[in-house]
Design brief:
There is one protein chain. The chain has 274 residues and is α+β, with helices and mostly antiparallel strands. The protein has two domains: 123 residues, no CATH class; 115 residues. The chain contains eight helices and seven strands, in the order βαβαββαβββααααα. A seven-stranded mixed β-sheet has the order 2-3-4-1-5-7-6, sandwiched between helices. A hairpin with a 3-residue loop joins strand 3 and strand 4. The chain is elongated and about 105 Å long. The model has no long low-confidence stretch (mean pLDDT 82).
């Protein structure tokens, strides 16, 4: 049995693949849905190490990086180098959002996904890319799921204030909260592209079946739908906050107008009395 080991980290909100490619001397323009694959001579030339058997590094635009057959030394050295190219990555706490998985090649055995590895009968060229893509999206989803919690806590504190009859939301605070929710939704839908599939799945039915099996096992679509549903709830709550806030401001303006009318009437009566 041969084996490929995948170690995945979600280290940034976004990675500029074209900038990384330029640093490695790769003359190609990458789109959002493509992964930058580094291996062999290109990897060794820039990092100064001898690549291990089957070693590859795949970078994804939505902030995930997948190491295939890399040891800890290579991982830390590469992240330190990548930090010089893309300063926004977290090269210190990179292990916070981590996925570990393996691909086992066992001839005459059917494709099977487990909690720790996926078993395949032969090592086809597209297997490493497809496994890496699923792992990268899973780690990025975990990052998004954790980032959603502080937003939910913020909304909950505002609901507590509202229950006590004190909304107290200024325009800036409300705008910041809305921006956090919109940014969260944008990062989930636009960056991670859960519903998009690798190009190879459109030309190979076997690749498409394998990717679907992996994606279903890691519940990518279900987790995405949960995040989307929570975001929709947050948006509805914020719409309610905006309506209440506008109503309070409208009521305040109406009372000011009434007060001005009363003052004007009083002044008129004083003039008549004089």
């Amino acid at each position: 049995m041969s084996e490929l080991r995948f170690t995945t980290f979600a280290i940034a909100q976004e990675i500029d693949l074209n900038r990384v490619a330029d640093a490695f001397g790769i003359r190609k323009k990458y789109t959002w849905e493509e992964a930058l694959v580094l291996s062999g001579y290109v990897l060794g030339q820039m990092t100064g190490w001898h690549s291990r058997e089957g070693e590859q590094i795949l970078l994804f635009s939505f902030g995930s990086i997948v190491f295939i057959n890399s040891n800890r030394e290579h991982i830390e050295k590469f992240l330190a180098y990548l930090k010089t190219v893309v300063p926004s990555i977290d090269a210190v706490n990179y292990r916070v959002y981590r996925e570990d998985y393996a691909l086992h090649v066992e001839p005459d055995q059917p494709v099977e996904c487990t909690d720790h590895f996926v078993r395949v009968p032969a090592l086809l060229p597209y297997y490493p890319e497809l496994v890496s893509t699923v792992m990268a999206k899973s780690a990025a989803l975990e990052r998004i799921e954790v980032q959603l919690e502080p937003i939910l806590d913020t909304i909950e504190s505002k609901l507590d204030r509202l229950e006590k009859g004190r909304l107290g939301l200024g325009n800036r605070e409300l705008a910041r909260t809305i921006a956090r929710v919109v940014r969260h939704e944008y990062n989930t839908i636009a960056y991670i592209m859960i519903l998009d599939k690798p190009d190879i799945t459109w030309t190979s039915s076997d690749a498409a079946d394998f990717y679907e099996k992996m994606a279903d096992f890691f519940e990518l679509t279900d987790r995405y739908e949960v995040i989307k549903h929570k975001t929709a709830i947050l948006e509805r709550i914020l719409d309610g906050f905006m309506s209440i806030s506008h109503s309070i401001r409208g009521l305040f303006v109406e009372w000011v107008i009434v007060l001005l009318i009363v003052v004007e009437v009083i002044l008129m009566l004083l003039d008549l009395l004089r």
